[in-house]
Amino acid sequence: MSPSTLSRPWSGLVKLGLSAGLGLAIWCVPAPEGVRAEAWHLLAIFVATIVAIMLEPFPMGAVAVLGIAATTLTGTLTINQALGGFSNHVIWLVLMAFFIARGFIKTGLGVRIAYLFMGLLGRKTLGLGYSMIATDLVLAPAIPSNTARAGAVVFPILRSVAEAYDSRPGDGTARKVGAFLIKNSFQGNLITSAMFLTAMAANPLAAQMAGDLGIEITWARWAVAALVPGLVSLLVVPLVLYKLYPPQIKETPGAADMARSRLAEMGNMKPGEWIMLGTFILLLVLWIFSKQLYVHSTATAIVGLSVLLVTGVLTWEDVLAEKGAWNTFIWLSALVMMASFLSKLGLIGWFSDTISGLFEDVGWLPAFLALSLIYFYSHYFFASNTAHVSSMYAGFLGVAVAVGAPPLLAALVLGFFSNLFSSMTHYSTGPAPVLFGAGYVELADWWKLGAIISVVNIIIWLGIGGLWWKIIGLW
């Protein structure tokens, strides 16, 4: 056994020790006045778990299991309470959506959609960029992994197009088309992730935390609120990138020809693709009209998976083999459980009351804007959307409501920002290391462009979005 092999578990134990040490330090500090001991102890375990997720001593699911164990071994929660996250309907919605996403990839429908958009829009590089974003937008409602959309569907096609135009990393040709397409697809992926409750795994976590504070966020409510600012961002951001980070090749007729050629090779849609398309439409209808039809959103997802299993589009082996889904199920269940009990034990309320006092002489609007910007730009210190949402969303939402912000508006804006704040760094969220790791975009360009796009998105979502939210009655 090589020394490097032996060093890996020791490195993991050191990182785990650092995380546990931080949690122990919080545990040993007396709980502030007005905070129950159980709430303070749970906070210590929660912080240790979040830090461990960021340091990655072990896979995220393993860290979550350790966190669950800590809550029970210390007597902070009962075993029934510690395992309560696994019965949460939001967690099951995410799990089912991961399986449904597998259907898009297995049947080839996701790739077909991408080539259809390429054939329509791909004769110019800017249009090619829009075609990649359009593909992501169509797939986003049913694929809760932004990494799967960007990495498994869009990136392979994007890279083949770049190489077809002799645009490769490391040899001076990256800026021909590849660099623009990479950066454009990354930013588009974050916007589509903000537009649907089921487009990113941490979105349901935010909705759950809002629910713990008495704020209901439905699938349709999220989608309607995000519709206008999301579409404007999807139109404007590629134009900004095209101006600031232009590709050297502006005309790409070969890309459209390649798309049509690939579609011809694929032939007519197969039965599995038709079933997948029909299931997708069924899901959207039931999610949009869930209240009118009295069908729960999680029940809808279960129905969708059932259709795919009964028709043979997916097999049970496909379900069992979807490791990403089961991994997300475990760590998301643990984080939802801890976050829920932090609220139930009164810690979020205490935090909200304490911090809101700093804004007592400020109107709710400037106070909420300040809170939103702090929440947004603090993502420079996070390498995971989920870690950021888990550790800060509920607290900031509680403060926003305490200073007088309309509860639903505050919950949705912070939910949208929980995706858009990933625009800035190359480690911000799952798709970032995948796309940045391709080597087409220099680190300085990634950060500079990310900072600019963050401002563009904030202006669009708070400006145009604010007007839209006024029209639909959110404030």
Overview of this structure, please?
The protein is mostly helical and 475 residues long. It has a domain at 89-323. Helices cover 74% and strands 0% of the residues. α1 (3-28) runs antiparallel to α2. The protein is globular, with a radius of gyration of 23 Å. The N and C termini lie far apart (63 Å). The relative contact order is 0.14. The model is unreliable at 1-7 (pLDDT under 50).
Unreliable spans? 1-7
Query: What is the beta-strand fraction?
Result: under 5%
Query: What is the N-to-C order of secondary-structure elements (H for helix, E for strand)?
Result: HHHHHHHHHHHHHHHHHHHHHHH
- The coarse overall form would be globular
Helix segment tally: 23
Major sheet: none
End-to-end Cα distance, whole Å, is 63 Å
The number of E-state strands comes to: 0
C-alpha Rg (nearest Å): 23 Å
**Residues in helix, %:** over 70%
Helix vs. strand class: mainly alpha
Mean pLDDT: 89
Q: What attributes does this structure have?
A:
475 residues; mainly alpha; 23 helices; globular
